[in-house]
Structure formats: C-alpha cells, structure tokens
Amino acid sequence: MKALTATAVKALPAQARKEGKAIEIIDPAYKGMRVRCTPLGKLSFVYRYISPIDKKLKRVMLPANTLADARQYHHALS
C-alpha cells in the first residue's frame, strides 16, 4: 500500500463530490489513522484503536486541519 501524502488528501474532496459518497482512506504509515472526506468536501482525521479495557473499537476525531498535524496528534495518542 502506498504512503498517504498531503497531495492525495487535497484531492479527496473532489473525488468525494464526484462519487457522491463519503470516502475513508487508511494511512499505512500510522496504525489506526484514517482520513475521511464527506461528499460536501469536509475532511476529518480519525484515530481508531481497540481499547485495552473493554476490548471495543474506539474512534477519536483528531483536531487537525492537515495530514502533518494529524500525524503529530496520532503520535501523541499512541
């Protein structure tokens, strides 16, 4: 799987509008991190993990505007 780049993230809103549905892309370099784009073009960065306490899948929305910021938040959480 290819590494996720800032250029690829910038292209997601146009792709989501064209397809008319939300798109979620995995960042292979950062375990559990995903980029989600709605058909309206809104980008969200998400960190998914299995809780060691209750063994359930958890989702944390990262307060980031860029891929670089999201990766920094991911590093702080993992």
What does this protein structure show overall?
The chain is an alpha+beta fold and 78 residues long. A 4-stranded antiparallel sheet has the order 1-2-3-4. A hairpin with a 6-residue loop joins strand 1 (23-26) and strand 2. It is built from 2 helices and 4 strands, in the order αββββα. The chain has helices at 6-19, 67-77; strands at 23-26, 33-37, 43-50, 57-62. Helix content is 32%, strand content 29%.
Structural class by secondary-structure content:
alpha+beta
On the 0-100 scale, what is the average pLDDT? 92
C-alpha-based Rg, rounded: 13 Å
Indicate the low-confidence ranges by residue numbers. Answer: none
Shape estimate: globular
The biggest beta sheet reads:
4 strands, antiparallel
Strand content: 25-35%
Strand order of the largest sheet: 1-2-3-4
Distance between the termini: 21 Å
Total helices: the number is 2
Percent helix range: 25-40%
E-strand count: 4
What are the salient characteristics of this protein?
four-stranded antiparallel β-sheet; alpha+beta; 32% helix; 2 helices; 78 residues; single chain; 29% strand
Topology:
Blueprint: H1 6-19, E1 23-26, E2 33-37, E3 43-50, E4 57-62, H2 67-77
Antiparallel strand pairs: 1-2, 2-3, 3-4
Short description:
By secondary structure, the chain is of the alpha+beta class.
